[in-house]
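Severity: low
Component: inverse-folding endpoint
Summary: output formatting inconsistent between runs
Steps to reproduce: submit the following structure tokens with default settings.
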């Protein structure tokens, strides 16, 4: 009798262990979308990386740099690894590489705080050493705030707190940060701060956008000396091509517009919400091998899914949907092989 009970107990203990292990595996499977924000990957051109970088900058030669919190990384030529080259005191918010290879990095622990400063640094030696060249006590410089032209002019826009006439200016340096001057001033309105600052590599025109209300997109054809209002919109992402300039909009509908260089006209070419449960703002666009890669974000109070789309041969195709709030705010590349980088992912060229 006792022997039978002992065998019985062993059998039940074994079954309990089996069910416990199965339960853990099922739990992990069910909660995978909560742990991993990627819900669906819809293209075999995407592959995961062993590193997760969230802010990117790309050189003219296709070298891709990325950031993880306070650390600056350089991605290897084959894209398989990333090597840390420098660490800052505060979190990295922006990486820009000038045509001559100088690296510009902006840091800020909280870009909405009026008490946390934002500091802009410059490296002339590939990231071995950095020197402070600009400091904002209230405003901040983000991934869309820094650009430069082929004459070495460096432009930095102010983002962040909008009240008390903060975050309204774009600064220019002609001497790699030794001196600065304000070249653009947005209206003194409490709902305005600078969004995108970008140089068109085909024309060297400088573009500046601001929002949230009122909105404005401006262009300078003489290096920032004079400006003209092109339209009343607050575009936050941009990609330049020989025939067009593509703009990602800060709108819940998930909009992309194109500027026709010949006609100098804007045209709405995509609204993600028309394709289903999609939408959201676009904060960065990549252009590689005649293809646009466009991420759209989701804020907690929005109902759509965050997503990433491809635009090629006049067709839009869904690449990724995300299962949580957020999305990809920055894109790296294309690198020398045409690859584009997202946080934790590579998109191979077509």
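Observed output (run 2 of 3):
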């Amino acid at each position: 009798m006792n022997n039978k009970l002992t065998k019985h107990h062993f059998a039940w203990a074994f079954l309990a262990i089996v069910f416990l292990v199965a339960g853990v595996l099922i739990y992990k499977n069910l909660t995978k979308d909560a742990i991993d924000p990627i819900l669906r990957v819809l293209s075999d051109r995407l592959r995961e990386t062993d590193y997760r970088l969230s802010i990117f900058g790309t050189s003219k030669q296709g070298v891709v740099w990325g950031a993880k919190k306070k650390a600056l990384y350089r991605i290897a030529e084959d894209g398989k690894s990333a090597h840390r080259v420098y660490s800052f005191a505060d979190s990295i918010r922006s990486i820009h590489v000038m045509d001559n290879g100088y690296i510009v990095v902006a840091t800020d622990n909280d870009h909405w705080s009026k008490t946390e400063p934002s500091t802009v640094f410059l490296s002339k030696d590939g990231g071995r050493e950095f020197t402070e060249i600009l400091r904002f006590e209230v405003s901040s410089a983000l991934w869309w705030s820094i650009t430069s032209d082929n004459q070495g002019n460096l432009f930095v826009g102010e983002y962040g707190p909008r009240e008390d006439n903060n975050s309204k200016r774009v600064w220019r340096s002609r001497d790699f940060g030794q001196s600065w001057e304000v070249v653009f001033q947005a209206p003194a309105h409490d709902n305005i701060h600078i969004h995108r600052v970008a140089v068109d590599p085909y024309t060297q025109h400088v573009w500046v956008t601001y929002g949230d209300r009122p909105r404005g997109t401006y262009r300078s054809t003489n290096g920032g000396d004079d400006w003209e209002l092109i339209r009343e919109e607050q575009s936050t992402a941009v990609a330049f091509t020989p025939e067009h300039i593509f703009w990602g909009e800060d709108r819940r509908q998930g909009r992309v517009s194109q500027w026709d260089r010949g006609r100098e006209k804007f045209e709405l070419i995509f609204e993600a919400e028309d394709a289903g449960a999609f939408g959201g703002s676009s904060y960065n666009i990549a252009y590689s091998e005649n293809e646009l890669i466009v991420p759209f974000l989701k804020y907690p109070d929005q109902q759509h899914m965050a997503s990433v789309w491809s635009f090629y041969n006049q067709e839009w195709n869904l690449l990724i949907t995300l299962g949580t709030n957020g999305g990809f705010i920055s894109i790296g590349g294309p690198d020398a092989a045409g690859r584009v980088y997202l946080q934790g992912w590579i998109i191979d060229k077509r």
